[in-house]
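Journal club prep, shared notes

We agreed each person brings one worked example of a sequence with its structure written out as tokens. Mine is Thioesterase family protein. I'm keeping it raw so we can talk through how to read the token line rather than staring at a rendered picture. Sequence first:
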Amino acid sequence: MTECLSPKFATHSFAIAIDAADIDFMGHVNNASYLKWVQDAVISHWQRFAPAEALATHAWVALKHEITYRKPTFLDDEVIATVLLEKVQGARAFYETIIKRGEEVLAEVKSSWCCLDATTLRPARLARDVIDRFFAKD
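Then the structure, token by token:
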């Protein structure tokens, strides 16, 4: 069953800490660091909106990341990731994360994740009331 959700999203802003280890030989953030940032931002989004019971009984694994790099990121940049859950289908969740320096878009990331039962580590659907927490009310 496809769960089509409201086009109004509850976004989450996540401040990114850039470490010297993130910088590559060209003097900007290495592409691999973006993956860690997206993972940290999406998990932070989940922790912000999910109720305590869902946090205790569910875990997430990334299935796919598609990153479009727009501009390089540097050590002293102040960077924010804005995360939103676009839709949920079964045990899968589809996220969009925009990484920005001020108004400049540095990267756009589309990712899909699988929700797991924290005990069995098998795919698990979220309850409707949990899903609804991630979408703004009219």
